[in-house]
TrEMBL record:
Pfam families: RADX
InterPro entries linked to this entry: NA-bd_OB-fold, RADX
Gene Ontology MF terms in the entry: single-stranded DNA binding
Protein name: RADX protein
PANTHER family for the chain: RPA-RELATED PROTEIN RADX
Amino acid sequence: SKLTNLGHLEMTWRSRVRFHPLLVRILHKSRLRYYGKPEKKMDMPYQAYFEVADGSGMMSMVLWNSLCPEWYHSMKVGTVLLLDKYTIKTSYPFKTQPTPGDSQMKRFATIEISLNVRDPPTEISIIPEEMVKPEWGLPEVKYRFITRSELDDLPNNHSCDVIGLVTFVGRAERARKREHSEDFWLYRWAHAIDGTSDQPFILELFATSQPDVFEHIHPMTYLVCTQMRVIQDLTENPSRTVYLTTSNESQIFITGWHKGQPYTKDAKVKNFIQWTKLQSEADQIKKTVIGGYYPFPRPPDSFLKY
């Protein structure tokens, strides 16, 4: 069929009601958002954002309501989609923006693709990777992996991806989303090492829309976290500690989930795998810890400094 591209859509969307099909690759995926309210009678008030791209650039795509439980888990980072009967809307200005792995990629930020169950019902097809042709010009998924030795020099809020061997994982804890609110964020702390530094990555992992992964992070698993944000303690604290926290677009993967993921081709991931082959499992197991209370960032050692 006759296809269009994202660049052409941005130029012509105001003058059209019906759009040609689109062929795009998913580069980023947000956590699933529930926006239900007691007074509103909606069957499935869910929403998820994706960043999709073709040869012309990258644009946001929104999956709405009952399409979320049907499609959310099938739409992975790297998945190629054929979309028809979608709608185009002006972008929501306050949504979070992931940092693209390819800084040269053009971003179409004024509009977004909307996938709905009706008016009109969107047609979604997933193209298997072995059927994707090079002449379609779809971009590859690119990452921004860093090693632990590089972390201390990165600025606050810098976006990066990490891989490491888990040496500590804390219990799940809760924090109120807002004061006096009934809603909570669920999170846990983890440490992971990659052999490039004596210090581990300190990771604050909020529950994403991957409960099956979040609940099974154990010591000795290979942990990949994408779209993490650097948190630099900007106070005068001489023993400042750098840690990483998840963002709205973070994805977490553990041993058993890595097969077929696009990051397995990344050079720093391959280097990490080579390093793990040289390690003694028995030695590493002795250094691992699980559970318990993990106060972080640590308070000063005296009340005077506090």
